[in-house]
Design goal:
This protein is about 25% helix and about 30% strand. The protein is α+β, with helices and mostly antiparallel strands and about 210 residues long. It has one domain: Ribonuclease Z/Hydroxyacylglutathione hydrolase-like (Metallo-beta-lactamase, Chain A, 4-Layer Sandwich), CATH 3.60.15.
């Protein structure tokens, strides 16, 4: 069984998720934006072994601590999609702009593309490329537990911003309707900020994508 724990980090209260395979206790960490000590304390409390970092996209609040954590624990960095390379390159400037600790540059061990899979222990998650918020944004879908880790594509009652460089509103709507909705109304998603919701609930009530 795949398990997860969501830990809000950074002043932006970004939802970093620790996901692990119950059978093996191997774990991945999705979007370690900061507060490494807090995250490692949770990992220790859970009794799991971190094996990889998975990134949905490369904005500072999602990727800020990636380089330091990868170096500290010798972890591979998986994702995002190559189209977010320019955001990775800009992490030092992003950290200065938003008052974050200096972000260490990094090179992903493996880029992700639409239709790829990632594995932790005995558990496999599907990767969907969902551009719009950033051009290289990806989503991790765990159909075995009806969960999706969607970063900043969709929120409870809202959608991701598209006013950043290379953001695209129509692309974001297409990503939601063509890539997320087919995962099923019953799927609960863990957004990059704020509470969980389900795709069905958002289809019915989210003013940005209602009825799509």
């Amino acid at each position: 069984m795949l398990q997860y724990l969501t830990v809000p980090v950074t002043p932006f209260q970004q939802n970093c998720s620790i996901v692990w395979c119950d059978a093996t206790k191997d774990a991945a960490i999705i979007d370690p934006g900061g507060d490494i000590d807090t995250l490692l304390a949770e990992v220790q409390h859970l009794g799991v072994r971190l094996k990889a970092i998975w990134l949905t996209h490369a904005h500072i609040d999602h990727a800020g601590a990636t380089g330091e954590l990868a170096e500290q624990l010798q972890l591979p960095i998986i994702g995002p999609h190559p189209a977010d390379q320019f955001w990775i390159d800009a992490l030092p400037q992003q950290s200065a702009m938003f008052g974050f600790p200096p972000a260490r540059p990094f090179a992903p061990t493996r880029w992700l593309h639409d239709g790829d899979t990632v594995q932790i222990g005995n558990e496999t998650l599907n990767v969907r490329h969902c551009p719009g918020h950033t051009p290289g944004h990806v989503v991790f879908h765990a159909p075995q537990i009806d969960r999706a880790f969607v970063g900043d594509v969709l929120f409870a009652g809202s959608i991701g911003r598209t006013d950043f460089p290379q953001g695209n509103h129509q692309q974001l709507i297409d990503s939601i309707t063509q890539r997320l909705w087919p995962m099923g109304d019953q799927t609960v998603f863990i957004p990059g900020h704020g509470p969980e919701s389900s795709f069905g609930r958002e289809r019915r009530s989210n003013p940005y994508v209602q009825g799509t």
